[in-house]
Amino acid sequence: MIKKLLLLLTLLIVLVAALGWGGYQMHQEKMSAQLPIEQPRQLHVDAGTWFRKFAQQLSDEGLIDSPLWLRLEARLNPSVTAIKAGEYQIEPGMSVRDLLDRVVAGETISYSFTLVEGMTFKQLRQRLLADDRLEHTLDALDEKALLKELNSDLPALEGLFLAETYQFERGTSDVDLLQRAYADLQEVLAEAWESRKPELPYDTAYEALIMASIIEKETGVPRERPQIAGVFVRRLERGMRLQTDPTVIYGMGDRYQGNITRADLRRPTPWNTYVINGLPPTPIALVGREAIEAAMNPAPGKALYFVAKGDGTHQFSNTLREHNNAVRRYQLSRRSDYRSSPEE
């Protein structure tokens, strides 16, 4: 009798072990199975999603045949329950375990947003609000409120964000993106200010930023930034007005329709450098690192004037006579209403 019981117990143990091993093997096969997709797709995991709900979500979306296999995986390996919210890319050939590893690691899809050199804040704001990958909180903030969000005591938002490409995840707020761009601008500006050439005609780093924005708008070919900066710096040092068209255009606002007239050049605005002495009160556009560097380290020389050649480059002149000759050569034959920048 005892022998029979021992035999039955042994058989039972073997059977349980066999079933357990078989179940384990089946579980491993399920976790190693490729996802049933033929095209890349996205998976959205909401914030606060529990692992059990996540397993059910994968089943509901047809990515696994039963949530039980993921729940078993959680019992065998509790660390897999630490899933991260976000948007994930799923590719054909990925296994269930590959997907789980990606969600646990938080390897979400990264998007990019580029702040373009020369863009105004109004244009930047429109682009941010049109991007449906971002959470839109900017619409509720006026200039004063946004400056407070940035913890900035500067007078205006214009030019306060570094022109650069920023990576972000879906659901990032537009204000968060601006805060990063503002912090980057402050860091780059502070470093450049510390290493600037001595005796530049700027009292503050903000004035150098204003100059950088003018350089940015006047530059068609990147290598000319230091030369253009040199012209403007020498004009400031001599008490000459900058007389640069982009400042006129900025001051015109929505009145600018693609051309400027003699009346526009004479019309006073805080930014019209044909009318005001020195720098305008704020930047006129976003700037990149190179424009800031040019403003802080302008090229040496004697040129006080430049005129566009029509191919993106400029002709630089030391005297008004040379400049007027360059204007006749490069511009008057093309535009009867041309206003060179800068001029006497």
Automatic annotation (TrEMBL):
<dbReference type="GO" id="GO:0008932">
    <property type="term" value="F:lytic endotransglycosylase activity"/>
</dbReference>
<dbReference type="GO" id="GO:0071555">
    <property type="term" value="P:cell wall organization"/>
</dbReference>
<feature type="site" description="Important for catalytic activity">
    <location>
        <position position="218"/>
    </location>
</feature>
<dbReference type="GO" id="GO:0009252">
    <property type="term" value="P:peptidoglycan biosynthetic process"/>
</dbReference>
<dbReference type="GO" id="GO:0005886">
    <property type="term" value="C:plasma membrane"/>
</dbReference>
<keyword id="KW-0812">Transmembrane</keyword>
<dbReference type="InterPro" id="IPR003770">
    <property type="entry name" value="MLTG-like"/>
</dbReference>
<comment type="function">
    <text>Functions as a peptidoglycan terminase that cleaves nascent peptidoglycan strands endolytically to terminate their elongation.</text>
</comment>
<keyword id="KW-0997">Cell inner membrane</keyword>
<keyword id="KW-0456">Lyase</keyword>
<keyword id="KW-0961">Cell wall biogenesis/degradation</keyword>
<protein>
    <recommendedName>
        <fullName>Endolytic murein transglycosylase</fullName>
        <ecNumber>4.2.2.29</ecNumber>
    </recommendedName>
</protein>
<comment type="similarity">
    <text>Belongs to the transglycosylase MltG family.</text>
</comment>
<keyword id="KW-1003">Cell membrane</keyword>
<keyword id="KW-0472">Membrane</keyword>
<dbReference type="Pfam" id="PF02618">
    <property type="entry name" value="YceG"/>
</dbReference>
<keyword id="KW-1133">Transmembrane helix</keyword>
